[in-house]
Amino acid sequence: MISIFELFSIGLGPSSSHTVGPMRAAYAFCQELIKMELLTQVNRIQVEIFGSLAYTGKGHATNKAILLGLENNLPDAIDPDYLPKRYEAIIASKKINLANKYLIDFDYETQFIFNLKDLLPLHTNGMRFSAYDKQNKLLLEKEFYSIGGGFIITGKDDLKQRAQEKKSQYPYPFDTAAELLALCHQHNKKIWELIFENEATLRSPETVRKGILHIVEVMEQSIERGMKTTGFLPGGLNVRRRAPDLIEKLKEHPESTISHTEVASLDWLNVYAIAVNEENAAGSRVVTAPTNGAAGVLPAVLHYYKAFYNNVGDDEVINFMLTASAIATLYKKGASISAAEVGCQGEVGVASSMAAAAMAAALGGTVEQIASAAEIAMEHNLGLTCDPVGGLVQIPCIERNAIGAVKAVNIARLALLETGQYKKISLDKVIETMLRTGRDMNHHYKETSLGGLAKIKVNVIEC
Length: 463
Ligand code: SF4
Fold this sequence. Notes:
The chain is of the alpha+beta class. The protein has 19 helices and 9 strands. The strands form 3 sheets. The protein has a 5-stranded mixed β-sheet with strand order 5-2-6-7-8. The protein has a two-stranded antiparallel sheet with strand order 1-9. A hairpin with a 5-residue loop joins strand 6 and strand 7 (138-148). The longest helix has 24 residues, at 205-228. It is globular.
């Protein structure tokens, strides 16, 4: 099982697989040096990144995240403004403070390698960290993989073991949608009730509730900041932040005067998603849902639910999040949430599926209708490629979140018009199809910026 607190992790933009995961890996490497009492013997450190990390790492701030991770920073605690400043200081001084304890020389040009030729065996998002002593003897070498959503693994058995260990701890274990639905029927419970009880085996119920509300608070803050902040996004594409301007244009239809049945409410839904993803693109604080690139879809739909429906309190918000996390778990277990593995289907596609299911649940859907909403959303995201222009999480990512959010609301409504019992394609089948489609996809469309929109000539300033 995957806990809701692993799925929705508070981190920083622009990418969970290329920023959050690599920072965690670098941090973990230094922790290992400390554990093995090797830290003070280190004279030189070398970082090598592979595959999609190497291709789009600069635009996704992978290099910055790794150097800051080596200095003992973690994505949920670091001040987003500190990251670029400290990165520049490391480069200029040619010194790095390992684990924030041990200062050594570090020449970024020769010791940080973007390996565009090779791949590590388990996943395209591979990283290798090597530490040497004064005699140039290798002290420690470790390979990590950032497998999407900020999750990292070190070896083949890592995830499998983790899943098995944790599964036995929960009262309602499930790997597939069919198992999840069967549990709901067998115990006469809603999806969110099962997930809540699973979570409450590891923490007190109060801690679970507070933890979820804290995640939602951070999501809301990212909407608020994004709706106020003007200017241009970093990276050289000169993309202008649009959310505040869009709000100006929506003054004719203020949120407080319209209802969810009016089309104008969808304009606001667009704004919420764009606001979050502009924050993400700026390297600010966001929540992986299930990734950073897709961080805007779920908060936007949740905020829409709160803004345009009556009587949405903490319980309703918590149930929404629990339902979404159940759907994300199914994709994480049955397919992938890594764009480097399956394209944007695994990011915005999954986010849209989660949000559609959560919204269907919020509107009173049965478990079949909720599963149907999740299925429809993925069915109409199959084949969605990842081709970010300039390797930056901006074009098409920001608008794509808005489209994913609007799609989710539409799909939730559509799913509620039918029982969901006579579907030709089940949620499990579409998850499997998404994985197969991802495997068939040319690597140019899997977060390498080698194809699609990324090949169109735009004014990209190298940074
Ligand atoms: S195109 Fe989709 S998967 Fe690729 S970086 Fe953008 S949001 Fe992420």
